[in-house]
Amino acid sequence: MYIHWDDKLRIGNDLIDDEHRLMVMLCKKLDCAIRENVPKNQLVRTVLEMKKFTEFHFVSEENLMLEIGYPGYAMHEQIHSQLLQQLDAVAGRINHGIADPQETLEFIWQWLGNHIEHEDMKIGVYLDEHRRASISQEAYRNIYP
Q: Residue 46: pLDDT above 70?
């Protein structure tokens, strides 16, 4: 499995795109931890780090959807909630030695790519079609001109 950022995952909102890049980086971090055969508690902490950042990112993404009046907000929020529950369960299964960390990483990596390509891209298309600036995008530009 080759974990890397690909610009085809850009949705066109700098803040969200940068957070997606960080999520890819966290997948790479988990991949390295698995390859180095780190202790189980370290793997669990890495998955928890991913979950915490994912929670943060989902709030950013959901705020963007609300700011622009995205019509698919409720369904998208539900998808986010389901993944967070799955990440909790995965961390518990790794901690109890009943989950294969490599299979866990493959699930997370596949989910992330599919989610961005199929769900988050809809947000990008909506942004383009409606040419709406978001509060988060404007704030981002003020920090990183």
A: yes
Q: How would DSSP label each residue in the chain?
A: ------GGG--S-HHHHHHHHHHHHHHHHHHHHHHTT--HHHHHHHHHHHHHHHHHHHHHHHHHHHHHT-TTHHHHHHHHHHHHHHHHHHHHHHHTT-S-HHHHHHHHHHHHHHHIIIIIHHHHHHHHHHT---HHHHHHHHH--
43: exposed, middle or buried (Cβ count in 10 Å: 0-12, 13-18, 19+): buried
Q: Which range of residues forms the domain containing residue 80?
A: 7-143
**Cα(35)–Cα(101) distance, rounded to whole angstroms?**
10
In a domain, 22, yes or no: yes
The upper half-sphere exposure of residue 69, i.e. CA atoms within 13 Å in the direction of its Cβ, equals 5
pLDDT tens-digit map of 62-90: 999 999 999 999 999 999 999 999 888 88
Quote the tokens at residue 70: 């995205």
**pLDDT cut 70: percent of the chain above it:** 92
CATH code, 121? 1.20.120.50
